[in-house]
Design goal:
alpha/beta; Transcription Regulator spoIIAA; 5-stranded parallel β-sheet; 4-stranded mixed β-sheet; about 20% strand; globular
Length: about 400
């Protein structure tokens, strides 16, 4: 009997890539195979901005051209939030799914394509999703309760849904035993982990403490977290525990409190600055990277200058710059005071140049501080012949020859 082959593409955030990898595992366990001539192609979409939706459309167009006989399966945040008239199917008899219930999607595909389930697939009881990296991305929660005015995610993924502690520990144990040397905790609203669990009292710090008890654990890294969720317990935990990476990605979005209020962000610029000072007081070397949106409606030259000076003063290890591009169903889309695209692009250019300077300076400072002591590293797939690529606990990569590598600790 002929194999039923598929391809799968995931766009967007770490959570979306985790969902895509999880679906791939489920499809393989159900008897499907990954193949060059697929019977169906899954596109796990992102809709966080209008630009992200454009990338979805471009990928779908490319896949249709390359795989004319394949059925499309369009899933993820875009179909979950598509408005009437959106050309999501684009003339193709696609299967439209949305977010969540991956087992339901697999059942639908099994019923339609009827793959042959192999004996070896029945024995796959692993919790692990598939990854070709040294790092394992562990999704601890989905959904968000914040409803920032520019963000579509709560509309796409719903309210906060934390995973059970037991399932997370089981998956992390398997990942560590399988050789993954870094567990990256990710979630749409990571810092709120556990708040929706009414019967059990657990939070992000509790989860990390339980993970640290795992025998084969290499180290833990946190993905994006909000500044008001980096509390004293978490700071103390990161400061004292060498197996937690000294790197926090804390979204700023704007250095203007006026704009932060329009964004419905839960802090002021002054609060953000004071909290960063508290973190650095206990962890001086910590890398703090951030996100900034430029060209938000009503962002004046003074507001942008405030953001630039704020970012310059805080010496981030890296700034991810996003030109404003909101979806139609978000509150920010309907705000007055839209900014000209040329102005937005110029502001983005200025901030990206600042980011390059700050990134270079931070890495130079850390390398100088570690001139006579070893980095703690994990090996990543190298893209430079003859060099070992390794990731530091501070979030940046180093490229080493074999002699240089001997000077450092590999976890």
């Amino acid at each position: 009997m002929a194999k039923i082959n598929f391809k799968l593409y995931s766009l967007g955030c770490k959570v979306n890539h985790y969902d895509g990898a999880n679906l791939q595992k489920l499809l393989l366990s159900a008897g499907f195979d990954i193949g060059l001539k697929p019977n169906f192609v899954v596109i796990n979409t992102c809709s966080v901005t209008k630009k992200a939706i454009l990338k979805d459309k471009q990928l779908i167009k490319k896949i249709k051209k390359e795989n004319p006989g394949a059925r499309l399966v369009i899933m993820g945040c875009w179909p979950q939030t598509a408005i009437v008239g959106d050309d999501i199917i684009a003339g193709n008899k696609a299967i439209i799914w949305g977010v969540g219930n991956l087992n339901g999607l697999v059942k639908k595909l099994v019923a339609e394509f009827k793959p042959v389930l192999k004996t070896k697939d029945k024995k796959n009881n692993s919790s692990l999703v598939l990854s070709d990296r040294s790092r394992y991305f562990l999704k601890v929660a989905d959904g968000c309760n914040q409803f920032c005015s520019y963000c579509i995610i709560p509309h796409a993924r719903g309210r906060l849904k934390s995973r059970a502690l037991g399932s997370l520990l089981k998956e992390a144990r398997e990942a560590s035993k399988a050789g993954y040397r870094e567990i990256v905790l990710c979630g749409i609203h990571l810092g709120r982990y556990g708040e929706d669990k009414k019967t059990t009292k657990i939070n992000l710090s509790n989860l990390i403490e339980e993970l640290l008890k795992i025998k084969d654990l290499g180290r833990i890294r946190l993905s994006s977290i909000e500044i008001n969720e980096v509390n004293s317990d978490l700071i103390k935990l990161i400061a004292r525990e060498s197996r937690i990476c000294k790197h926090l990605h804390i979204s700023l979005q704007s250095g203007s409190t006026k704009i932060l209020r329009l964004m419905n962000r839960p802090y002021t610029a002054a609060y953000y600055k004071n909290q960063v000072a508290k973190i650095r007081e206990q962890i001086p070397e910590i890398a703090i990277s951030t996100d900034i949106i430029v060209g938000f409606p009503q962002e004046s030259e003074a507001d942008f200058t405030a953001t630039y000076e704020f970012a310059k003063a805080l010496n981030f290890s890296k700034i991810h710059v996003f030109p404003f591009s909101a979806h139609e169903i978000t509150a920010a889309y309907h705000l007055d005071g839209k900014i000209n695209k040329n102005i937005i692009n110029e502001r983005a250019r200025i901030l990206r140049n600042l980011s390059l300077k700050q990134e270079k300076k931070y890495q130079a400072d850390i390398k100088k501080a570690y001139k006579n002591k070893p980095f703690n590293l994990i090996v990543e797939k190298s893209d430079v012949p003859g060099k070992i690529r390794a990731k530091t606990e501070f979030g940046f990569d180093v490229y080493l020859n074999e002699r240089e590598a001997k000077k450092h600790n590999f976890i």
